[in-house]
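Chain X:
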Amino acid sequence: MIAEAGLGALWMAAAFAALQFAMAWIGIAQARDDIMAAVRPVAFVQGLLTLLALALLITLFVQSDMSVLLVAQNSHSDKPLMYKIAGAWGNHEGSMLLWVTILGAAGAAVAMLEHNLPKPALIATLGAQAVIALGFYAFLLMSSNPFARLDPAAPDGAGLNPLLQDPGLAFHPPTLYIGYVGISVAFSFAVGALVTRDVGPAFARAMRPWVLGAWVFLTLGITAGSYWAYYELGWGGWWFWDPVENASLMPWLAATALLHSVSVLATRDGLRAWTVMLAVVAFSMSMVGTFLVRSGILTSVHAFAVDPERGSFILALLALYIGGALVLFALRIGTVRQGRTFDLISREGALVANNLLLSVILGIVLIGTLYPIVAASFGVQLSVGPPFFNKAAGPVALVLVAIMGAGPLLRWRRDDGNDLIERMMLPIAVAALAGAGVFIATGGIAILPFLGIALAAGLAAASVAPLWKRNLRRTPLFTWGMVIAHLGIAVSLAGMASESAFTKETLVAARVGEPHRVGPFTVRLDGISPAVGSNWSALQAHLSVRRGEHGDWFVLRPQSRYFSSPPTVTSESAIATMLDGQLYTVLGASDGQGRWQLRLWWKPFVTLIWLGGGLIALGGALSMIGRIRRERKPAYREGYA
């Protein structure tokens, strides 16, 4: 009865979402305070019902109930408990249930926690959120039922994709989905503001924590997903411009632009139209990502659905939501006042330039991702890979970084160009010194990595500019957040540029006892031995490694694993992490003549990529906490920065 109870909870949640929308519509149209007051508890109950449905699905996986089709297709009785739990969303139907659960919980949180918006704007926001939820409830219940029964029950399950049997599965999808849902809430706030013609600082202050939260979780999800693919897939790269990777990057780019705009609107009453439009664009990108991952048009380890009918359903939802939002935007944008003006040379001007460049990069990624899909529909097979994205987006990103460095040094409203140049001298000098140091040490590297390292150094110096000549103990928490987030971008950029410029790779067919070189390391294959895990067996290499001629020897043990359910062979890399980089080793196949394929990489400073991602997320979290604290203080005044 657990499956039936879960399905019943979903149907009830869908019914409450329909009721929530109807009550919001009637309450606003008829100005009925009694009806509007009832919307909050309905949203709260809807959230509880989605949490119940997800908890019941997890219970089915933990119990290995093979009479449920989803469990039989994606689990196994011998699978470790952690992967039984995480496996509940390691598939199409379960991940969609996780999505609507977070969506319902977010709606409940808005209903319970938001008390600063005028009632009509809040109720319109909850009504928009209910419409979004209704579409996904319909998708689950009509085409992706996670509680469908299997008759007769399977003797055991087919197992979970071994590439997903990793702790990353417990962390990566939930963080991304929280980010996506945070964007949907921001979109609902924008719709509510347009419906009630109340686009102003109050709306922006209500939206800002959701944008910040979504941005933080998207950053964490992308960072964790990058590292998960890096160590799990055994290909030695941290980003491949895979369409499904791009599906998470595009909402992040839009959310980054939205974050800057909503902050200007909340504190300076500017960029009103920008804020609303970017909320629509950010949600559009999250819907495009959902379509790419679940439509069946992509073949990727990240993609779930393989049924084109599901893709058609999501495409219809995308057209409905985004088309409706654009129509509403077109009808109501004329009612949005301009807000306060500012000069081109000002911090607002720099933020607008950043938004334009982020939009250009977003357009490049979107076109590069969708063009092969559109071409394939006309019978033309082509591939758009890293060379295109790196050459097209790389230079734009470097210009963006340069403007980002100038932003914190600019004054609000208006500034003087000569004064800006004077304040920029230190970051420029730091960038020049870093570039000169790289050139002297290496004799020259490719132009994009060279500029990346130099600009990263300059951005790091400019990032701490808001702390110059300030009492650090009295510096607001959101200022620390901005500093740390910008510093994190500099750190990540330095890691990306260093990995691109200095990586050394060696591919060898090694015999036992033979030493091989990669970068400053000597790697010797000492033997191959069997290894056994909870639900896999493996061949494990014993690699003795030494750095330089006189370093101490240490051991790495990469594996070639075999999973029986489902039958799959995976490469498990062994990585040595050091202060200045990582040694990455992968065991390949035997040639039958006593030699084993080894892939060896030395990646200087590659860990800065993920360290920077963590700093970006930390900065966003501190900024969110600081803003919430500031706005709850009685002394807070509109327009105070």
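Chain Y:
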Amino acid sequence: MFNSLSDRLTATFKNLRGKGRLSEADVDATIREIRRALLDADVALPVVRAFTGRIRERALSEEVSGALNPGQQVVKIVNDELVGILGGQTRRLNFAKRPPTVIMLAGLQGAGKTTLAGKLAHWLKSEGHRPMLVAADLQRPNAVNQLQIVGERAGAVVYAPEPGNGVGDPIQVATDSIEVAKSKLHDVVIVDTAGRLGIDEELMQQAADIRSAVNPDEVLFVIDAMIGQDAVKTAEAFLDGVDFTGVVLSKLDGDSRGGAALSVAEVTGKPIMFASTGESMKDFEQFHPDRMADRILDMGDIMTLIEQAEKNFDEKETEKLKKKVEAGEDFDLNDFLTQMAGLKKMGSMKKMLGMMPGMSQYKEQLANFDEREVDRVEAIVRSMTPQERTNPKILNGSRRARIAKGAGTTVTAVNQLMERFTQAQKMMRSMTRGGGMPGMPGGGGMPQMPGMGGMPGAGGGKKKKPAGKKKGRKGGQSGNPAKRAQEAQALADKKAGKTQDPVGSAFGGVDLGKDEEFDPANLPKGFGGIFPGGKK
């Protein structure tokens, strides 16, 4: 959703990189570009004015003028302010001291309340709760039936005593559901209320009456993240009429500009608590303002990746692989298959790759990423015999032809997979020896993910040129005088122990260099589920 905004902000910050000091003109030019980017993203004008005003004030203060790298400091300020307008702290659900906890959903018709009720129930079940869905939307045609279908998909009980379609009293249904939940030991009750195509007095009165009847612990306002500045007016109307406690963004995976997410929390003063990011029941996550700000600024979202890995990777299998690597045994195709299965459980590969820092420069490759390629790779590996998976060296031409036929693919595809697997083996061996990890800067290229095409740094970069005559070059130097001078300066800096920002980093990241060693034990806590030897 934030692709356009992210691209604009990243391009703006690149102009600041490398400047020893920032003049007032530099700051004003940066603020002007940020303002344009936010307005293009359909962020509410009052929010844009307040946001850019705070950034300008801080950017012209001693906080930036005294910094060693003013450009990086401005990026940090923008990041801090983005976190602020997105709500600041992560807001979690307030559970009742005496169950059941009552959660009421409110919002316009078409915002996605009913589907989101199922997703919330599914998420609560994964957290160890026993939710019950309540069909209190008795106006919209087939709303009750839809909630029953959604509840079945989520694995949650649905309380629906009335058929709906204009029949029944929603206030009585909501009131009775509390006693039913107590008798059947459900610790969370999610009340799905009716919406309208627009704000009207009848809608607000019904929502207010249900709130008074059930006295909910949380009132979540569900808003379509794709409606832009209209989200602000709708949110203000519901705040006055129902007084909600938190916001849930639906359809955050859409291709709109994302103005709602950056406007609603600032205008209403109520935190964004959850976000719906797809059509599956699993495409639902707690909203973290700091992580969303990092995504917008193309800094990635490593923490979410770690949490997903911890949930979906089998701890026993990870421990088994760790011991195998530590013992010096080779990573084989059975291990490769296990890792692929874990990745599939984590969800969309596009989404996961998009959470990596600096991926905006590979937007075209990500757009062309083929999710089905992962299944094709799995089919190839499963077409091998147990002996071939354990000892891939025996895969000669005839065996590869048989495997290709069994997987319904070509020998070329099998050969490409084996090349990627060989790279993965080398990476594991390097980690065992404590050497640099392939794929880190200067480390020789990450094993290419299936379906990635020619993404730089993913094993699909530039191919080596065939040996031949060197035109006008000596000792492998560039033929461009300016580039030769740059290479000479880089070599001199390296000898002097100086470091430079890696090319392509908009935020001054640190290049590990070829002399640095990768040690999984030095990674942040949570990487144990991804790299053997990392902290759990």
